[in-house]
Amino acid sequence: MLILKKELFEKIVSQIKRESPNEACGILAGKDGKVEKVYEMTNIDKSPSTFFMDAKEQLKVIKEIRSLGLEMLGIYHSHVVSVAYPSARDIELAFYPEVSYVIISLKDKDNPQVRSFKIIEGKIEEEKVIVRKNILFVCRENSCRSQIAEAIVNNFYWQKFLAYSAGSKPSGKINPLAIEVMKEIGIDISGQKSKGFDQIKGIEFDYVITMGCTDYCPIYPAKQKFEWEISDPEGKPKEFFRQIREEIKNKIKELSEQIG
Known about the structure:
Blueprint: E1 2-4, H1 6-19, E2 25-31, E3 34-41, H2 55-67, E4 71-79, H3 88-92, E5 100-105, E6 113-120, E7 123-127, E8 129-131, E9 133-139, H4 145-156, E10 161-167, H5 176-183, E11 207-210, E12 224-227, H6 238-258
Parallel strand pairs: 1-8, 4-5, 9-10, 9-11, 11-12
Antiparallel strand pairs: 2-3, 2-4, 5-6, 6-7
Helix pairs in contact: 4-6, 5-6
């Protein structure tokens, strides 16, 4: 299975649209199936039906990947008019049995299709590829509720989502009781930071969720928005923080099931 951040996938799509009608290609680097870097490569064939990477360029990228302590997870290329499935030429060029071969089809330019395959001795086996969706959790001070939600998503639902949080009037600190109740479920949020909206500029969000601060939280652009009426635990005892944590956990579980 390959897991891609939305921004990395969009970087690839931007490249293949830019290089169309020729095929575009590149290398994916990361660890444990999680892509952390995308390297756009030169297609020296300059062809709409085939690709071949520059050997010197490829060697340079592989050296950099190793120096970063990462692995070459995959090789991607585009199919300009055909579906996302390996061609006879793609199978012929599948020199690395351990990596994934990712194909992005521009047959429907408004909805690029991405599929990933293992190709070993000419045999093709499809694997799951996930493009993570971005979620923003918003509350007033970004010290309790939204911090808890961000951490739960990034620890338990990281294969599907990448979560961020921010506040309309960030306090600059994480509530100590929020840290304590999250440690009870094995999550350390002591290293997280209380943030304002200026620190998440430029990120495109699929979902924005307000945590019960509708009157104080400005409208933030997203494809879909949800309002969760979560009581503010500020100034309440630890047991109340636990209740809020469990309420947020349940709502995130329901959301994950709802949006697939």
